[in-house]
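Suppose a colleague, Dr. K., hands you the sequence of a protein chain of 139 amino acids and asks what its three-dimensional shape might be. Before reaching for any lab equipment, you can write down a predicted structure in token form. Begin with the sequence itself:
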Amino acid sequence: MPSPKKRTKSPMSKEHKDALAQGREEGRAVRRYLEALELHKPRRGRKRTPESIQRQLAAIEENLANADPLSRVQLIQQRMDLHRELEAKSQTVDLTALEADFVDAAKGYGQRKGISYAAWREAGVDAAVLKKAGISRSE
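The predicted structure, expressed as tokens, is then:
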């Protein structure tokens, strides 16, 4: 029985490699901007300040000493969550740089992926940002 012929891979052209690289870069820019929007979107209710988080942490520390084992583990988890939230509040994200990268990448990325104006808006992208990116409602 003859052995099956091995298929040789044809090398990718430079244009193809460049297009793939551009797609990856545009995808990264879009993802970073959308993630930053998600992290910084306004939440309902009263705003939590670092001071209010510190007060909650102090209350947890007081309650830990006299807590039963089940309550203790819940308080420990709350403390960990509050420390994480406090750390996140101290980090600042440069939305202007992420927005500029998004504006450069969004139109081509959206056209290739079939993303409509309405989908961008529902994802939280401001209409003015889409206008800067050259994405209109008719697309």
